[in-house]
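Changelog note: in this version the structure field was regenerated for every chain. One regenerated record is shown below for reference.
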Amino acid sequence: AARSAVPQVPAMAEGLRAALGSRTKRASGSGSEAAERPEENGHHSKRLKGDAAEEDAEDQNKKSPKRKIVLLMAYSGKGYHGMQRNMGSSQFKTIEDDLVSALVQSGCIPENHGEDMKKMSFQRCARTDKGVSAAGQIVSLKVRLIDDILEKINSHLPSHIRILGLKRVTGGFNSKNKCDARTYSYMLPTFAFAHKDHDVQEEVYRLDRETLNKVNKLLACYKGTHNFHNFTSQKGPRDPSARRYIMEMYCGEPFVRENMEFAVIKVKGQSFMMHQIRKMIGLVIAIVKGYADESIMERSWGEEKVDVPKAPGLGLVLERVHFEKYNRRFGNDGLHEPLEWAEEEEKIAVFKEQYIYPTIINTEREEKSMVNWLNTLPIHDFNSSVAEVHTNHKNSKNSSDLEGSDGCGDDSD
C-alpha cells in the first residue's frame, strides 16, 4: 500500500525516501561500526586478558595460604621516629611505615591489611625509639607465603632496612608476649669514661685497664632484680612494674675506628622501661667521671627520687631478642623451627659493619652528641634528691632528649 501511494503523494514519498536514506546511512554506519568492532573487540579482549592475568595473580595470592611467621629485621634508625607506626602522623616517618609499604608492594599482604595492621596480627618484639637501630628485631604477622618472599620484600625496602630471615611459628604466636628477654648494646666513645679532672683530647684518649675494670664492676651491680623507678619517667617507687630483672651487663674491649676509640656495653634483661638503659649507662658514666659517689646506685633503688642522667640515644642498638620458653615447647615439635638465628649471624654482622656502626661513628664525630651531653653532667647535684635540685636546672635543656630512647618491652608498646 505504501508503494502504490508513493507516486500519488510526492510529499510522503519524499519523507519515505529521507527515512529510507537515513536507515541506509544507519545500516552503512552500523556496517562501519561492525567493521570497526573486531578492532575494538581486539582491544577489549586484550583488556580482558590483562584483567584475567591480574585476577589470576589475585587468585594465586588468595590460594597462597596465609601463615603466621616471624621476620628477622635489621635497620639503621637514624632519620626515623622509632620503630612503631603512628597512624595519622605521616610527618613522623617510622621503620614500620617502610616495612608495611614493602609488604603490600611485594604481594605478601592485601592493601587493607597495611591500613589496619591488626588484620594481619602484626606485633613487634620491641618498640625502638627515635634514632635507635636494630640488628635483631623480630616482628610476627600473618602473610601469604609467596615465592622468593624475602627477596621480594627487600626489593621494596631501602638498603638500610633489611629482612634477614623468616620462620614459621604457631598460629597464636605474639612476638612481644612470647619474648623472654632482650639484649641491647650501647656503643660509645671511651673518652666518656675519662675523669672530669683530666684535660682530655677526644681523638687521642685511650681507656686503661683499671678504668675498664671499674666500669665493669659498676655495670655488674645492676644484675639481678632492682626497683628501677628512678631510671624511667612516670613510675612511682611502689609501682610493681618498676622492678626489673637484669641478667647481664658488661663493657667489652675497646677498639679504634677512624682514630677514635669506642667500646660496646651489652645488657640483657627480661624487659626494659622507657629510657632505662640510657639512664643505667648515664649513672655509671657520672660515677666513673667523678661527679657522683658509688653509693648513689643503692640509693637510686630505694624510695627516694634520685636525679639520674640520661645518656644520649645515639649508640643504642637492639641486638637480639630471646624466646627460650617458646623454643623449649615448640622448637623441636617436628612442625616448627626454634627461633634461633645461627645461620643469619654472618648477615647480621655484615649489616652492622655496613650501616649501623658507620652511622653511630659519623654522627658522633659530626654532631658530638656524647661531648655535648657530658657538658651537662655538672648541672646535676647527685648528693640531693630531685625535689631539692629541680629548681636549679628545670629550664636547662638536655640535648639527649632529642635523641632516641630504649622504648621496648611491656611499658612502651
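Spot check on this record: DSSP finds twelve helices and ten strands in the chain. The first helix runs from residue 2 to 8.
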